[in-house]
Design brief:
Organism: Marinobacterium lacunae
CATH architecture: Up-down Bundle
Largest sheet: 2 strands, parallel
CATH topology: Ferritin
Pfam family, one: MiaE
Strand content: under 5%
Protein name: tRNA-(Ms[2]io[6]A)-hydroxylase
Distance between the termini: 35 Å
Oligomer: single chain
Structural class: mainly alpha
Number of helices: 9
Helix content: over 70%
Strand order of the largest sheet: 1-2
Keywords: Oxidoreductase
Number of domains: 1
Shape: globular
Radius of gyration: 17 Å
EC number: 1.-.-.-
């Protein structure tokens, strides 16, 4: 619970109730699980990309290697859950969330690396917050699965943030504040598509 409270303090806002209501609707479950699986796969890919780009940073290599392995395990677990429920995994357009955060990434180093690590921390933190927010509304199997992800995903958030602080060599409060405000905007503003990291459902989507 302490880790979750820390994450809630790190984020600027909770997930909108309208998103939770949409996600808790049984009709939304296939989209939720398919996109969640995509998110786990992308998280592993992001960690691997950092490993390939920053080969001279041993701390990053070790933490991202472990993170990538864990994310792929979560991906496999999502696939197993979907298969048991007759939900077919397939292509799905990504939400605006991650791309929206990355629009503010600086182009020169080490600013680029610092920003990517901060973004990684926010994505992992938001995932944890949504796991916890959704669990009470899901069936027992899914609720248990989402609660089990809280611990590892919480550590991922800490890994990203600690690496950003270590490599910056100076306070990064301003950059964290910048991405915190941007993340809040992406989470709270109306979103036409429902995805695991999407914003508040657009009004017509809610009505439907």
């Amino acid at each position: 619970m302490d880790a979750l409270n820390e994450i809630l303090a790190f984020l600027a806002c909770p997930t909108p109730k309208s998103w939770i209501e949409k996600a808790a609707n049984p009709e939304s479950l296939p989209i939720l699980l398919i996109d969640h699986a995509h998110c786990e796969k992308k998280a592993a890919s992001t960690a691997m990309n950092l490993m390939f780009r920053y080969v001279d940073r041993s701390d990053l290599l070790n933490k991202m290697s472990r993170l990538a392995r864990e994310e792929l395990i979560h991906f496999e677990q999502c696939l197993a859950l979907m298969e048991a429920r007759g939900i077919q995994y397939g292509h799905m357009s990504p939400s605006r969330y991650a791309a929206g955060l990355r629009q503010s990434v600086r182009t020169s180093e080490p600013g680029r690396l610092i920003d990517l690590l901060i973004i990684g921390a926010f994505i992992e933190a938001r995932s944890c917050e949504r796991f916890a927010a959704l669990a009470p509304y899901l069936d027992d199997e899914l609720a248990k699965f989402y609660r089990s992800l809280l611990k590892s995903e919480g550590r991922h958030y800490q890994d990203y943030l600690s690496l950003a602080e270590a490599y910056a060599g100076e306070p990064i409060d301003d950059r964290i504040a910048h991405f915190r405000a941007l993340e809040k905007q992406l989470v709270e503003e109306p979103d036409e598509e429902f995805r695991f990291h999407s914003g508040a459902p657009a009004q017509e989507d809610v009505a439907a």
